[in-house]
Amino acid sequence: MKIRRHTTGGHAAHVNVTPLIDVVMCLIIFYLMVGHLAAGRSSNVNLPTSTTGRQPEKSAPIVINIATDPKEPEPILLLGEQRILTSALPKILKDQALLTPDAEVQIRADRALEYGKVAPVLMACRDAGLLSVKLVAAKGGKAAKP
């Protein structure tokens, strides 16, 4: 706020309140908009029931476990509980993508595996058109230092 003093005429100090009014108007508009948006979400609407139509189906995720075995040079791939070959994975994932195109893939890889052993699984998911791929990790542990 600026305070201007008139040196002539003995007038009192003049305070410019225009910026204050601008800020108050912005706050009023903000609270009106937020209140309107919140009222739309929190309204308690008793919706009618229907016996027709379909409920949105949430398909079960495709879980791929990648394990290591010291006796085998390549990692072990498990689709659910079934062991599969790395070479068969792209075909299996393409078939799954045709059945449920929006399916989620969860990859659970052993922490001892190098990225190069996990990359073919990620590439197979991409090539099959499965867009939701999640790498599963256990909660806990210490964060890596940058």
Q: Summarize model confidence as the mean pLDDT.
A: 80
What is the strand content? 15-25%
- Helices, by number, come to 3
Number of domains: 2
Give the CATH level 1 class of the largest domain.
Alpha Beta
Total beta strand runs: 7
**CATH fold topology of the largest domain:** Nucleotidyltransferase, domain 5
Shape: elongated
Which structural category do the helix and sheet elements fall into?
A: alpha/beta
Give the N-to-C terminal Cα separation.
46 Å
- Write out the strand line-up for the largest beta sheet, numbering strands in chain order: 5-4-3-6-7
Biggest pleated sheet: 5 strands, mixed
**H/E series:** EEHEEEHEHE
Judging by the overall fold, what is the CATH architecture of the largest domain?
2-Layer Sandwich
The unreliable regions are none
Structure in words:
- This protein is an alpha/beta fold.
- It folds into two domains: 3-41, no CATH class; 62-135, Nucleotidyltransferase, domain 5 (2-Layer Sandwich).
- It contains three helices and seven strands; from the N terminus they run ββαβββαβαβ.
- The chain has helices at residues 18-42, 89-99, 115-128, and strands at residues 3-4, 14-15, 62-67, 76-79, 82-84, 104-109, 132-135.
- The strands form two sheets. It has a five-stranded mixed beta sheet, with helices on one face. Strands 1-2 form a two-stranded antiparallel ribbon.
- The mean pLDDT is 80.
